[in-house]
């Protein structure tokens, strides 16, 4: 089966790493596991961050018109794909290309991780979200990665046809590597940018400040435009407590995870957090907030510990408990690896996608 893949927020070929880019790449890899031919349909980024940027909207709509014309000519010449799959359309980044082409060529339209929230209906975003609503309503299936997105679509777009898919990673290398955790070694892996990421760093620093009397060392993996601001949040700690290692490749991160005892990241606004899955696959239990989509990937008491959102004291208490309880850490580490292997691998996702897409294409997968 030929699948036209499109990610309007961030192309899988985008130069800046992020969870969205990684998830797009993982989806393409999972689809290819089923021997489907997956083509990146377009690299047009339909993102608009300002609800009053009418000039930007006009430019974006013109660019989308050009892309539709280009693809229309290509499909007329070579034949259309069997379906169009759009990853993560939402009010700031709708799919302005696929729905019209699918209607014109009578092809199934599919979304993965679409989201809808009526409270975003203002300014430019109201019109953009109306396009998301129409696309989700017309889609052959909307595949949801979290209960929150599923429930949001069910409430906001009652006609939507919905299916579930657990968040996943390519865990092969991580699961094969034997963990060698150092009992006081903490780690987090996250970009350094304003907003939720910077807020999570701030809450982590506040919690660690309550544990100055305990032995611990934090390895911070990541970089970005807010690095100076984030480093300032940790300025009160002795330098030997922290290792700022910057952005690293997958192999280096795997090695750092293997040496770590606890993955610490509160998770402000996390859709679900692929880094949580990577840590667990490496045998590192997670300490996070019970917020947003985090419970989709961290099972409280099985693969990690979840604490109340925004409560730095509760987070610090849970971390102190884990630092001082090696048997509990070991049990959580074992549970973390087992849970990822059973529910969150590329192979599990490939099988689930094959079934879901086969149901709408008459088994052509």
UniProtKB/TrEMBL annotation:
Keyword annotations from UniProtKB, A to Z: Transferase
Database matches in InterPro entries: Glycosyltransferase_grp1
The organism's place on the tree of life at top rank: Bacteria
Pfam family, one: Glyco_trans_1_4
GO terms for MF: glycosyltransferase activity
PANTHER family with a match to the protein in the record: SULFOQUINOVOSYL TRANSFERASE SQD2 (PTHR45947:SF3)
Protein's name in the database: Glycosyltransferase
Provenance organism: Pseudooceanicola sediminis
